[in-house]
Amino acid sequence: MRRRPASPLLWQPDGVRPSALDDLRPLVPGRVLGVTGAPGAGKSTFATRLAAEWGAVVVPMDGFHCADVELRRRGLLDRKGVPDSFDAEGLAALLRRVRDREELVLAPAFERDLEQPLAGALPVPCDADLVVVEGSYLLLDQPRWRAVRALLDGVWHLRLPQDVRRRRLLARHVEFGKDPATAEAWVSRVDDPNAALVEAAAERADLVLDLPG
Ligand SMILES: Nc1ncnc2c1ncn2[C@@H]1O[C@H](COP(=O)(O)OP(=O)(O)OP(=O)(O)O)[C@@H](O)[C@H]1O
Ligand SMILES: [Mg+2]
């Protein structure tokens, strides 16, 4: 596996130049690329673009959210989204199968309306040239997340100005059913501490994409 640089490269798009993605293509570190960033930084949106423009197959870490029934057992139902509310071991097992080029691997999706994972939703064919794994915790310095990182060829970290990111996150919580006060309370209590963890881990990224707001 490639050694990571001492500090991540910084890539700043000049506006919304359509060729910006072309500039990134040569920097792709291998077949399995991680994309990380704080909640609401735009990981899923970016990964969808890589799927549309580069033919990438996307595996969302969000598909490895524990179901509510397990979160209740772990006492984490009111903090869904913290690192321990994910099945990191399950993600690592799936990535091993992807790396082994098993003929057909089915990844789980995350159903935002139900706020639950959905098994068997996303096919990852063995001949996929690029698999993008997107999620917040791919660079955390904890054993179960280091095991995930070891299965990625490189990780790009997306960063948005904090106020823009937070505003978009709040809007998304409201779009999916929270009233504005509940959304603000949830962001302050759960998402903000998670964002701080993710930003602290960004120093281990191969590339930081500093996106304009
Ligand atoms: N360039 C953009 N302009 C405006 N809104 C955007 C832009 N990119 C993403 N968004 C919106 O911001 C919100 C967060 O984006 P997205 O869901 O891609 O973030 P994420 O990093 O995947 O978040 P999470 O960690 O919660 O999964 C979404 O509602 C998305 O539609
Ligand atoms: Mg997302």
Jot down its keywords.
disordered N terminus, 8 strands, two-stranded antiparallel ribbon, single chain, 7 helices, binds magnesium ion, 21% strand, P-loop_NTPase, alpha/beta, Rossmann fold, six-stranded parallel beta sheet, 37% helix, 213 residues, binds adenosine-5'-triphosphate
Kindly describe this structure.
There is one protein chain. This protein has 213 residues and is an alpha/beta fold. The protein has a single domain (19-210), classed as 3-Layer(aba) Sandwich (Rossmann fold), CATH 3.40.50. The protein contains 7 helices and 8 strands. The chain has helices at residues 20-24, 43-54, 68-74, 88-99, 143-149, 162-175, 180-201, and strands spanning 9-11, 32-37, 57-60, 104-111, 116-125, 131-134, 154-159, 207-210. Helix 6 packs across helix 7. Mean pLDDT is 91; it is low at 1-5. Magnesium ion binds next to helix 2. InterPro entries: P-loop_NTPase (IPR027417).
